[in-house]
Amino acid sequence: MPFPPGFLWGAATASYQIEGGVAEGGRGESIWDRFSHTPGMIENGDTGDVADDHYHRSAADVDLIADLGLKAYRFSLAWPRLFPDGDRRLNQAGLDFYQRLVDRLLERGIAPMATLYHWDLPQALQDRQGGWVSRDTASRFVDYADTAFAALGDRVGHWVTLNEPWVSSFLGYHEGRHAPGVRDLTSALRAAHHLLLGHAGAVDAFRARGLPGEIGIVLNLNPVDPASDREEDERAAILFDGNLNRWFLDPVFRGSYPGDMVDHYVGHGADLEFVQPGDLESIARPLDFLGVNYYFRSIVSATTDGLGWDAQRAPEGVETSSIGWAIRPDGLRDILARLRADYPAIPTYVTENGIALDDEVGADGGVDDPRRIAYLEGHVAAAEEAIGEGTDLRGYFVWSFLDNFEWGLGYRPRFGLVYVDFETQERIPKASARWYSGVIAANGLG
Question: Which residues of 67-93 are buried (b: 16+ CB within 10 A; e: fewer)?
């Protein structure tokens, strides 16, 4: 079951997590700038002010990507670097930064995959209209996306509209653990809907320009298992699957929200009046691909709190990462099988997959990470199995190219193929990077 010719082996990053330079080149404030500077929100008081200093080191980073033999690089555009106030005033210096990045990638034979929204909303839109709870934010997103298409669409062949809208909406507007830190169910559902409307509008703008590339969306998807065979746990698992998976898959691929979840949310006091006639037909625009971010299975038990479930990441006896995520390569195969069974066939990319470990530099100056190698080997094997079972899998992207700012966890978790000394900004490819280079050269595990 070999990987197909032209399979895209890559690594992924996101703008706020690596760029730094938050007050340079005309960039405006993002919701993550504000959130990370709010006391108590981020471990150790960390922020993305400097991160990996990629804003100043992008040329050398592209050279490193090429040296590792990566065929593709997934990165995100920072919306506030292009439109500092979230309006229609373009910051040309910000656009120039991404023009140079894309040109360097292409010069080194690396396919760029550009994500339009990886969570760094302009703070001005949050201040003026509540961010994604406002329908107008979807319109502003389409304006921004169309500008990016016009400037980069002749060179970027793979576009992602949204990265993990579940995280943006439910962690950002319901649980308050991510920016902008709102805690309200209706706000989260409004945000999710308007994110999907923005996605649909961006797809339409892309199609209208007749660009030669492809466009899709990236969803974080987990297989969901009940913690026991008790009826209440099985019911909770169905509901959690509806919250995490079906609330986004169904509108994108079926043009509807799952009825059981509509009833569940309304039963918990949510108001869905924001869904207007024609919205769901728009959201179900045909796509060129689906991106799947996979990290762990969800084990769910019933509770009487919140929305009625407790989703655990690591059942007893299962090996975990340094942040407690269970290592379950079978989950990647299973979620790809579920997509084949339940939704229309579509080309698919694994757009994020990786493990957080407590990596350290050894006495020899290198970084040995055998557990990451084992993790990646298991998941690449699962991807290969999925291809053999019928998934049209076109690429696999490791999270992440570099150790970086990991949102609420700050700089403690290290996901990178490349170790970063955050004091000196030295980059040290880990043993896993060399291993992955071999996989790429062989187009598989060999």
Answer: ebbbbbbbbbbbbbbbbbbbeeebbee
**pLDDT tens series, the chain, 446 aa:** 579 999 999 999 999 999 999 999 999 999 999 999 999 999 999 999 999 999 999 999 999 999 999 999 999 999 999 999 999 999 999 999 999 999 999 999 999 999 999 999 999 999 999 999 999 999 999 999 999 999 999 999 999 999 999 999 999 999 999 999 999 999 999 999 999 999 999 999 999 999 999 999 999 999 999 999 999 999 999 999 999 999 999 999 999 999 999 999 999 999 999 999 999 999 999 999 999 999 999 999 999 999 999 998 787 789 999 999 999 999 999 999 999 999 999 999 999 999 999 999 999 999 999 999 999 999 999 999 999 999 999 999 999 999 999 999 999 999 999 999 999 999 999 999 999 999 999 999 97
Evaluate whether 84 touches 44 at the Cβ level (below 8 Å).
no
Q: Between β-strands 309-312 and 289-293, what pairing exists: parallel, antiparallel or unpaired?
A: unpaired
- Helix pair 329-342, 370-389: axis angle to 10 deg: 20
| Residue 28 near residue 411, CB atoms below 8 Å | no
Residue 5, classified by CB atoms within 10 Å of its CB into exposed (0-12), middle (13-18) or buried (19+), is exposed
CATH tag, 8-224+287-295+316-442 = 3.20.20.80
Q: Which residues are catalytic?
A: 164, 352
Rounded to two decimals, the pTM is 0.98
Taking the C-alpha atoms of residue 141 and residue 314, their distance in angstroms, rounded to an integer, is 36
CB of 298 within 8 A of CB of 213? no
Distances (CA, A) of 185 to 172, 236, 243, 248, 423: 11, 18, 12, 16, 40
